[in-house]
Amino acid sequence: MTALLENLINPINQWYRDSSIRAFVQWWTTELKQLVPEDYRKNIFPEAQSVYINQGDQEVPLLWRHQNHEFKPLPKDSHLQNDDWWHQLNHYIADSDVDISTTYLLAGKHAIVRNVTLPQAAIGEIDSVLAFELDKYVPFRADEAVFAWRQGPVDDGSEKVLILLAVIKKDILDNVLEAINSKGVRLSGIDINMASDEAPEPLGVNLLPTELRKKKDWSKWKLYGGLVAACFLLLSLVMYNSLENKKAKINVLNEQVELLRKDARRAKLLENQLNQTIAAANFLGNLKQKIPSRVLMIHELNEKIPQNTYLSRVIIDNERMEVVGQSDNANALVPILNESETWYEPKIVGNVRPDPRSGKEQFTIKAELQTETEAEAENDT
Fold first, then answer.
1. 93 partner at 20 to 30 Å CA-CA among 23, 103, 114, 334?
2. Could you tell me if 60 and 41 lie in one domain?
3. What SS3 class is residue 116?
4. Number of domains in the chain
5. How far apart are CA 339 and CA 24, in angstroms?
6. Count of other CB atoms within 10 angstroms of residue 145
7. Domain assignment of residue 131, given as a range
8. How far apart are CA 134 and CA 129, in angstroms?
9. Among 39, 310, 74, which residue's Cα sits nearest to residue 185?
10. What is the per-residue pLDDT across 144-167, written as a single tens digit (0 to 9) for each?
C-alpha cells in the first residue's frame, strides 16, 4: 500500500517541485501565516526541520539543524547516558513533534559538479538522458557512478534547460551507507557540502537511491484518512436516515391528506344529499302550500251547492276542478261557485241537458284552482 502511494505521489511531487505553482503557494502560505500572531504561529504552523550529518574531514561528524533557512548546531541532551552522536540524533528525532528529514553531507572533494545544458524536449526524460550521456561529463563509467541533478532557471522562450549535475563514485556511497546503517540511522538523502564544515551549504541534490531513502511515515495520514472516511460514512448514514425520515413523514402526510380528501368527498356527497333532501322537502312543502286541500274544497262545495242540486262526480287535480251533477237551475250554480276563493272562473262545459227521469238539468262545471302566491303564503305564516 505504501509503495503504491509513493509511486503515485512521487511523479506529482516532481512536477510540483519544478512548477511555478509551488512558488506561488509558498508565497501565499507565508502571507497567510503572517496574519496569525507570532505566539500562536509556531504552535499552529510548526516549521519543517532538517538535520544534516556533516562528516567532512573529522572523525566525529557534526550535526546541524536547518530551520527557517538557517543552520544551527544540534543541541545536545545532557540527560542521555550515551554521548555518541547517533544517540543524540535518534533521541532528537524521536522527541520532535514534526517530521524531520536526515541528510548526510559529503565533502565537495568527493563529488564532481557540472552544469549541463539539455534541450527543452528532454525535460521529462532527464534521468534517462543523463544516464545515457554520463560518460561525457565524468572520467569513469556510468556503472561506477551515482548521479543526481537539480534543474536551474528556465528562460521564457528558451529551447535549452540548465541542469546542475552532481556525480560521486558508487564506492563512496557504499562506504557512507555502511557507516550510517551500522549506527541505526535512517537517511532521507545524501547531499554535497559546497562550503566549509563550520558553515555548511548543501548543493540541493539527493544522491541516495530512491529505494534506500527513509520512507515517509504514512501511519498518520492513514489515520487521518480513516477518520475522514468514518466521518464521511457517518455523515452519509445521517443524511440517509434524514432522507428516509423525511420520506416516511411525507408518506404519512400523504396518507393523512388522502384520508382528509376522502372525508371531504364524503362530506360533499352528504351535503349534496342533504341539499337534495331539503330541496325535495321544500318542493313538497311549497306544493302543499300552493295547492288547496281537497278536504277543504269538498267541504266548501258541500256548503255552496244548493239543496236542489246533487253531484255525481267530482274530479280535482293540481290545476283544475271538474264537477258533474244535476240541478233545477244549472246556470244559477256558476255565480254561486264564483264566490269561492279556492277556485276561480267556473263555467259550464258543453250543453245543459234535461234528465227525463229526474226532470233536472245535467251539467258539467270546470274551474281553475286558485293557487296561493308567495306573498299570501308569507302573510298566512
1. 23
2. no
3. strand
4. 4
5. 121
6. 22
7. 47-217
8. 8
9. 74
10. 888 888 887 766 667 788 888 899
